[in-house]
Amino acid sequence: TEEMLARGRRAHDLDRKHVFHSWQAQGPFNPMTIVRSEGTRVWDGEGRELLDFSSQLVNTNIGHQHPAVVRAIQDQAADICTIAPQHVNDARSEAARLIAEIAPDGLEHVFFTNGGADANEHAIRMARLHTGRQKVLSAYRSYHGGTNLAVNLTGDPRRFANDNPGDGVVHFMPAYPYRSYFGSTTEAEETERALRHLEDMITLEGPQNIAALLLETVPGTAGIYAPPAGYLEGVRELTERHGIMFIADEVMAGFGRTGEWLAIDHWGVTPDLITFAKGVNSGYVPLGGVIISDEVYSSFVDRQYPGGLTYSGHPLACAAAVATITAMRDEGMIENAKRMGDEVIGPRLEEIKAKHPSVGDVRGMGCFWAIELVKNRETREPLAPYGGSSDAMNAVMGAIKEGGVLPFANFNRIHVVPPLNVSEADVRTALDVIDRALDVADGYVE
Ligand code: PLP
């Protein structure tokens, strides 16, 4: 409506005057206004409808404004908006029960945080206290959050400005078949070589000094590159052998994104700690946390855990989690995500790859897919440099938005990450738009 658009224009003015944005040079930044959102759709400041194939920051796993979750938040607000973390609250207890039920056996306790970064910070703190060791191994080409330690754990250029060499973080090369650091030509070779590299890293850094290994089960923002067969099992075996806590970061990959409740379910590995956020309640109210193994938990039975947050287990956030998990179950969203990935997105992306010389690789699972764009299929030179953008990528993104689709993009990749309850018709429409937009990318192929 005209009133909605007028409100949007006023909000945009005020935003530019007073809002300081994440990760931006504030001056040139011209944010998109969203005046309305519902299901798989959002409406921009001109009132244009867009298919949200970004799920925002890959968090609205049940789509926008799911009525059952909106109602649960309203009901909780009418009942108890907030209560300090030291008290019992039924929304918090029930959320913890449901999350522990989703996690593998032997991880029965949940520490709630405000989001993913602080979940990783606390998981590392727990691992350090539990093992009495300080160093942490994490992968290049990863993202673990924006707070001080989390951004250092991160393996992308955003950490450069925040690098803190004293923090005990050591990065290793992950298994990444499309751009193998190890010169591998098959997945089996990649698994074997990446694990040998990791074993060498552990030996050279001194296993007796390594508290934890932190790894995104399926790295998200860094490229949605699932681990090749055997890799995670190998990581589990290596860490176990050396008494190193294996922390699986499921902040983006967890809660149905890959077509399983947790991404680790695809490989049947059991980490010592699991971090989550985003999809746990679709981000309707900020929430994250750490799922804790009985072994780590035992360290804090007689000893105080030195950490806490005013909003740990916030009732509004936990009520949203309970309603989200329930809606996912009742509406078969995980099954839908799996079917969309296996039967619709995967096959259609293969067609797109066959047709467009600018497409170097398509990969993913469930509602979690990446299209990697290149200037040249043989050399695999990316269409935008690592850590940067390019005219070509901007042109492709412009064409996709012009076509009525909001994708998630990073460097030379377009991520196809719709909500888990997306319809087949919406997937087909969005992928047709992306298909046409890739003609633009083909114009940059050398
Ligand atoms: N870990 C992963 C894998 C993520 O994708 C993100 C956010 O994108 C985070 C951690 C950080 O979560 P938050 O932004 O809620 O702090």
UniProtKB/TrEMBL annotation:
Belongs to the class-III pyridoxal-phosphate-dependent aminotransferase family. PROSITE patterns: AA_TRANSFER_CLASS_3 (PS00600). Pfam families: Aminotran_3. InterPro entries: Aminotrans_3, Aminotrans_3_PPA_site, PyrdxlP-dep_Trfase, PyrdxlP-dep_Trfase_major, PyrdxlP-dep_Trfase_small. The keyword Transferase applies. GO terms for cellular component: cytosol. PANTHER family: AMINOTRANSFERASE (PTHR43094), AMINOTRANSFERASE CLASS-III (PTHR43094:SF1). It comes from the Bacteria. Keywords: Aminotransferase, Pyridoxal phosphate, Transferase. NCBIfam families: PRK06062.1 (NF004718). GO terms for molecular function: pyridoxal phosphate binding; transaminase activity. This is PLP-dependent aminotransferase NCgl2355 (Class III).
